[in-house]
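[recover] target loaded
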């Protein structure tokens, strides 16, 4: 797969060695050199392009200090740092700069600050612009997702838009929060968060798959080059609308809303609970006391999920176990075609057995 060239690696190294403030100044200079209409504030930097798509990335990471030692395994095409790589979201920043440096494409650009502590930059942007400031914007692409080919839509529900994004080689997945969780509902614009190759984010064992990063970059370039970029209506997920209406009846302290813990049923501030992928497919919330007995982290997609009482020892969420069963059934069917001996173990039983054998000492990621 495609890896970093020498000059490309230099740029990525510069990004991970920079503080948020240093990086904000750098991207502001880049945008001023390539765009005529640029807005620069302490909370965000954005530019108005001539393509009706906006690219978004955030400039902060969870680590207090920038990277000192950076390592690149060219054989495995993976980068990491013992200091904490911060590819969430320096990989997204790199993807946008790579497109601007290597093509003549000029989509609108949004760089935000402090996404990791609640999307403060995105909040400042929508407070300044109650309506979308980018003329004729069709949709927004956030480059801030773990993995290799995920596309996450959060509270958006538009099957046509989802199918359109998946047509470029992505697969819909579940997520909890990113900047477009703030921008899209406010501006009523469809948006998607795409994988940029990092894994184990918010952890010093975080890695970046360079091949996956460049694969997403190439897909985004294809999307930007579309001759007739379609327009999509913004439809909010029914569950999200219901949830907001219910929360209107809850008391607030001015800093957020209150929710009921799915485990104990008590009322908590949203900041005291953790969002989890529920058994019904929707986001639910658990308080810290109820998390240990009700929540696990999937060994496949690394998302927090609600434990199924019918299968309490599963290391996989329902979405992933469905995919594993399908994959195992396919391979088992092929094996049976070449053998006269039929196995007494069903594909699903085999997958469940694999779950039980999965190491209980594997580390659990703390963020989706």
């Amino acid at each position: 797969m495609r890896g970093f060239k020498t000059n490309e690696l230099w740029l990525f190294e510069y990004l991970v060695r920079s503080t948020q403030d240093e990086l904000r100044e750098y991207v502001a200079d880049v945008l001023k050199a390539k765009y005529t209409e640029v807005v620069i504030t302490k909370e965000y930097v954005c530019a108005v392009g001539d393509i009706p798509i906006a690219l978004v990335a955030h400039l902060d990471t969870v680590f207090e200090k920038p990277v000192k030692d950076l390592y690149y395994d060219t054989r495995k095409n993976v980068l990491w740092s013992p200091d904490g790589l911060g590819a969430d979201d320096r990989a997204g920043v790199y993807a946008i700069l790579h497109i601007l440096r290597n093509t003549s494409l000029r989509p609108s650009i949004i760089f935000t600050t402090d996404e990791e502590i609640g999307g403060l930059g995105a909040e400042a942007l929508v407070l300044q612009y109650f309506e979308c400031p980018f003329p004729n914007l069709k949709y927004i692409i956030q480059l801030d997702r773990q993995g290799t080919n995920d596309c996450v839509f959060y509270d958006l529900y538009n099957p046509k838009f989802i199918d359109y994004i998946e047509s470029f080689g992505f697969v819909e997945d579940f997520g909890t929060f990113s900047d477009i969780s703030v921008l899209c509902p406010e501006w009523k614009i469809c948006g998607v968060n795409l994988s940029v190759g990092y894994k184990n984010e918010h952890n010093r064992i975080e890695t970046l798959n360079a091949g996956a990063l460049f694969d997403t970059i190439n897909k985004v370039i294809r999307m930007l080059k579309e001759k007739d970029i379609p327009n999509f209506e913004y439809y909010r997920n029914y569950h999200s609308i219901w949830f907001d209406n219910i929360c209107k009846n809850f008391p607030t302290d001015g800093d957020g809303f209150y929710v009921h813990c799915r485990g104990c049923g008590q009322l908590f501030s949203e900041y005291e609970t953790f969002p989890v992928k529920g058994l019904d497919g929707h986001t639910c919330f658990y308080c810290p006391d109820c998390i240990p007995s009700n929540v696990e982290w999937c060994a496949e997609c690394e998302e927090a999920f609600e434990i199924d009482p019918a299968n309490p020892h599963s290391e996989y969420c329902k979405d992933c176990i469905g995919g594993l069963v399908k994959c195992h059934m396919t391979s088992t069917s092929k094996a049976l075609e070449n053998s006269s001996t039929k196995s007494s173990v069903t594909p699903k039983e085999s997958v469940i057995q694999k779950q039980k054998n999965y190491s209980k000492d594997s580390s659990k990621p703390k963020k989706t």
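[recover] notes: The two ends are 26 Å apart (CA to CA).
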